[in-house]
Backbone:
């Protein structure tokens, strides 16, 4: 049984599946990412080389820039938790961004 306020995966916010190109920066070094899913609280990303656990990164997609911390790493996929939740308009911008 799910806890109150959590979805069936135990998440406080639903994840929206997307496949968007984005850019990230870790320690001032930019790199390309694919955004695989996103919620107001975080995102699942893929990169040619994932950053280390605990690294702070900034994710840029369309006009949205969000900073956060790498919470998990699995090969080239990794998850970040944003420092502050995205507002609905920021989330909508990422979801609607051109994935090409």
Residues:
């Amino acid at each position: 049984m799910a806890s109150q306020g959590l979805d069936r995966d135990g998440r406080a916010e639903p994840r929206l599946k997307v496949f968007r190109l984005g850019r990230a920066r870790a320690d001032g070094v930019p790199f390309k990412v694919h955004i695989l899913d996103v919620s107001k609280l975080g995102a699942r990303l893929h990169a040619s080389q994932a950053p280390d656990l605990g690294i702070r990164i900034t994710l840029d997609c369309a006009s949205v820039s969000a900073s956060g911390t790498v919470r998990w790493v699995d090969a080239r996929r990794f998850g970040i938790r944003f420092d502050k939740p995205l507002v609905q308009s920021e989330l909508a911008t990422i979801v609607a961004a051109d994935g090409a």
